[in-house]
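Posting this for the archive.
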Amino acid sequence: MVFSSLQPASVWRHFSTLCAIPRASGHEEALRAALAAWAHERGLGVKTDAVGNLILSRPASAGYDDRPGVVLQGHLDMVCQKNGASAHNFARDPIHAEVRDGWVVAPDTTLGADNGIGVALALAALEADDIEHPALEVLLTVDEETGMGGARGLHAEALSGRLLLNLDTEEWGEVYLGCAGSADVLINAEFPTEPRSVAEVAGWQAVSLRLTGLVGGHSGIDIHRQRGNAIKLLARVLHGLTQRGVEFRLAGLNGGTARNALPREAEAVLLVADLERLREAGAALVALLREELSGVDDGLRVDILPAPLPATLLHRVAARNVIALLHALPQGVRRLSNTLPGVVDTSNNVGVLRLDEGRLSVDIMVRSLRDAGVHALSAEIVDLCALGGIHARITAPAPGWTPNPDSALLALVKDVYRQNSGGEATTQVIHAGLECGLFAALWPEMDIVSFGPTIHGAHAPGERVEIASVEKAWRLLTGVLAAIPPRS
């Protein structure tokens, strides 16, 4: 009911459906089935390809048969993040959304406006009988947030349209014509452990050192904001404790849930000889971090809580090596673009960390506007790991989307924007991994533009979408469809 009074009604009705059906990456089947059934009921074309992408289609409206076909594109999956105290289960629970001061927000979880609102815009256009449009294909991909698996699995014959409107942009008034490429660097290693009884730690106390309270955010769009990364901050605390002579043994580590989200929480399970000394040194280190993050990430806190005694501990030398590795890994902006003022050129995010029973895994996402930049930073991280005898590998490379400032579709979108608003849309290149790079590689002749309403806090709890900008995006979308010129 939260969406019942919002306009455009059809867009919010579709978004309500997306909020009601769980759609974590890799688990989009229930939503895909519901949308396919909806399309069949309306006599629309329905196809599902081998990797699970859903392609819906509708013929041109009257008088538009001579126009080139248009593809409307979004992705079905969403990033699943929640606050630590939330009982939300992304596998079964609908998203709880509220309307607050002109925004739709999910207070304790991600909302899924990235990219659910883009999907809703496309579905509303597909079903509308009161708009003019060329032949439409709606491409709804899967697994975008965890590696763009749906886009990677597409075949060239899947689509006939050669004009593509990607609806996965998150700042109204900005039209995107380029994006960063990316790759994952995966670290997997095994370190020696020893039983607790062998470690001569009688009388020591088991504690959980928990770092929480960070804002988090999108590892591309928000990377320049200098927000804290919980994994890196935890590594700094552990490194600082070692430097201050605090004696502890490391049993486990845990942090982050997605390689494309800035980690908000991280935890270390320790055995400590002197709990009071740990508290004193920890408080001093946290004070330094809070000062550093002041005005950017003011919620940082570190709690030291009792924990069950671990059965095994990491060998002392291995623990030093793991902490040193995490402390040395790069994080954040590597360089800014020389040609696009204010745009990040290359960055990385240490997104997910696990250490259990001596088995270490770390997932790092590298982004760059240049494919060579992706390779250079990824290879640097691999070489850094190799210096410590730790294996790392580069996976899931995704090409960037090279800007085409002479795009006819871009000119048309900006012209319709000008007519609707009386102002000028700005042209941008985004430091995030839109699927457009893969589309451009698969269909080199495709003319591609991306736009959408304003979304804040994507990939973090409290994600919200501005209601007024959704209506503006709808007017732009329908205006562009009506203005597609005949084939020359």
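The chain has two domains: 9-180+401-483, 182-398. Residues 182-398 form a domain with the Alpha-Beta Plaits fold (CATH 3.30.70.360).
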